[in-house]
């Protein structure tokens, strides 16, 4: 056997071993290490099968030892093999494809028999050529047995006679291979119908016809291989384009997300700049206020100094003017009258005067409203039932509300509406305001145990204390669980658009809060 090498064979066969095959779902499915002639068309002269990652090097080694290691002759005909490799695109140390071309060669002609193509990256083994069926029937079972035995050298090969038989079969003329000698009727018909050949023993005509058929078979085999490679390249390109489209879509989404984030950061930057300007203005106002306070303090000290001197002078002069009057009683007491009677009268009169001064005021209205400046537009008539009375007590802070509760007696009051705390959160922490609210509710409960108390949440506001007001409202929600007759009121019908800093704008509380309190 003559061996022609276009690439040096790696006798360790490690160059052809891959850890994992590439998956190609678009390729035609073929059986595992079996031959099926029905998969491809008969005119394609092509068959294929697949193998595994563990056995592909055994197949390559067997093909090499079987066809390329020794010279094989049958008479004057020699079996010639050509070994060609295609390196992998991503790794030059690996082979992508191996092509083994088998041909017969004598003194005058060389005829291609079959071409064995081994795809190392996918595990696909493809056979093409005019003697495809002869190879599949005679050679494939022998090579399959050698692969199963995992033959390691040429000394274990016992198929030399089989190769010579295969070489002898493919070297016969085509007519002898194709005609069925078991059917004489066919031979008779062919003999009678065909005209006699002018020169049946012309060897040149027969060789030309054989050469033409071989060339056509080789061309068809090459075309099929080219078509499969082009299809595979097309599928790879399509897969790459799909992956690139996905990457482009992901980049577009990422760009959109970054643009949205950038817009949010830009708005935050604008707000920070605005807050910085407000901070500078507040610092300037505080500085001016401190300066004014220092000036007033200085002027006050200057004014107090001469007044103190004048008062000292006045007291000195007064002491000098006072006469020296004796303090002893020159009159004797009257023993016949009872002096205790007048003293008791004077004492009782003084006690009655003090009682009148200390006695609290009385309110007989059924509804008492304790509210800060947010209630200046309230119409008390809208908050009570028909034929019932309402009293509005203005209290700026919780402390002033507690003082009002202590100043009055509420004999017929059934309902207390409490809305205080708007001004307290400007100076006091949330916990302190909550404790003062509990103290106020306790005072109301002690004076009127059966009265109902409606505790109003703070209204929404448009300044920096909005969060503090919301936190206080959360504490107010827990207070009804601590007191018997306390109900919490939430102003869900109001929002920040109707606010001016901490107070309601004109007519807003009258039209919204009043009706809401009336419904409750």
Summarize the structure.
The chain starts with a strand and ends with a helix. The chain has helices at residues 56-68, 132-149, 160-171, 174-178, 184-193, 203-321, 339-358, 398-407, 430-447, 466-478, 508-519; strands at residues 2-5, 46-50, 73-74, 77-87, 95-105, 110-119, 124-128, 361-363, 367-371, 390-394, 408-410, 415-419, 452-456, 486-489, 499-500, 503-504. It contains 11 helices and 16 strands.
Architecture overview:
This protein is of the alpha/beta class. 48% of the residues lie in helices and 16% in strands. It is built from eleven helices and 16 strands. β4 and β5 (95-105) form a beta hairpin. α2 (132-149) packs antiparallel against α3 and α8 (398-407) packs parallel to α9 (430-447). It is rod-shaped, with a radius of gyration of 58 Å. The protein starts with a strand and ends with a helix.
Topology of helices and strands:
Blueprint: E1 2-5, E2 46-50, H1 56-68, E3 73-74, E4 77-87, E5 95-105, E6 110-119, E7 124-128, H2 132-149, H3 160-171, H4 174-178, H5 184-193, H6 203-321, H7 339-358, E8 361-363, E9 367-371, E10 390-394, H8 398-407, E11 408-410, E12 415-419, H9 430-447, E13 452-456, H10 466-478, E14 486-489, E15 499-500, E16 503-504, H11 508-519
Helix pairs in contact: 1-2, 2-3, 8-9, 9-10
């Amino acid at each position: 056997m003559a061996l022609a090498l276009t690439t040096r064979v790696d006798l360790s066969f490690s160059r052809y071993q891959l850890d994992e095959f590439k998956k190609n779902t678009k390729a035609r499915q073929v059986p595992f290490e079996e031959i099926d002639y029905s998969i491809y068309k008969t005119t394609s002269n092509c068959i294929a099968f697949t193998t595994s990652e563990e056995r592909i090097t055994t197949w390559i080694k067997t093909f090499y030892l079987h066809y390329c290691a020794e010279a094989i002759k049958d008479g004057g005909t020699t079996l010639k093999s050509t070994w060609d490799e295609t390196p992998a695109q991503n790794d030059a140390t690996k082979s992508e494809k191996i092509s083994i071309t088998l041909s017969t060669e004598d003194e005058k002609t060389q005829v291609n028999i079959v071409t064995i193509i081994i795809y190392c990256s996918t595990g696909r083994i493809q056979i093409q050529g005019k003697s495809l069926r002869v190879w599949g029937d005679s050679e494939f079972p022998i090579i399959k047995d050698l692969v199963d035995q995992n033959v390691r050298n040429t000394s274990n090969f016992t198929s030399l006679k089989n190769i010579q038989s295969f070489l002898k079969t493919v070297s016969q003329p085509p007519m002898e291979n194709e005609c069925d000698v078991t059917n004489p009727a066919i031979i008779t018909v062919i003999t009678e119908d065909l005209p006699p050949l002018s020169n049946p023993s012309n060897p040149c005509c027969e060789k030309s016809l054989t050469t033409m058929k071989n060339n056509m078979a080789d061309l068809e085999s090459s075309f099929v291989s080219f078509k499969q490679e082009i299809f595979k390249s097309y599928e790879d390109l399509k897969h790459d384009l799909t992956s690139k489209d996905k990457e482009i879509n992901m980049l577009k989404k990422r760009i959109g997300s970054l643009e949205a984030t950038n817009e949010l950061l830009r708005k935050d930057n604008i707000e920070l700049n605005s807050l910085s300007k407000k901070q500078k203005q507040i610092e300037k106002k505080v500085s001016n206020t401190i300066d004014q306070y220092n000036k007033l303090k200085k002027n006050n000290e200057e004014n107090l100094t001469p007044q103190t001197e004048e008062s000292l002078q006045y007291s000195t002069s007064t002491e000098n003017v006072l006469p020296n009057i004796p303090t002893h009683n020159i009159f004797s007491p009257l023993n016949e009258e009872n002096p205790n009677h007048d003293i008791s009268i004077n004492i009782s009169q003084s006690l009655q005067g003090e009682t009148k001064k200390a006695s609290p005021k009385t309110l007989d209205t059924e509804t008492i409203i304790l509210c800060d400046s947010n209630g200046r537009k309230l119409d008390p008539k809208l908050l009570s039932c028909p034929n019932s009375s309402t009293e509005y007590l203005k209290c700026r802070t919780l402390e002033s509300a507690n003082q009002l509760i202590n100043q009055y007696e509420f004999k017929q009051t059934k309902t207390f509406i409490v809305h205080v705390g708007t001004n307290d959160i400007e100076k006091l922490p949330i916990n302190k305001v909550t404790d003062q609210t509990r103290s106020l509710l306790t005072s109301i409960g002690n004076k009127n145990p059966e009265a109902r108390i409606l505790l109003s949440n703070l209204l929404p506001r448009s300044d920096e204390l909005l969060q503090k007001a919301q936190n206080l409202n959360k504490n107010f929600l827990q207070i009804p669980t601590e007191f018997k007759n306390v109900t919490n009121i939430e102003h869900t019908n109001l929002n920040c658009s109707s606010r001016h800093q901490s107070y309601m704008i004109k007519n807003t509380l009258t039209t919204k809060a009043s009706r809401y309190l009336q419904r409750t």
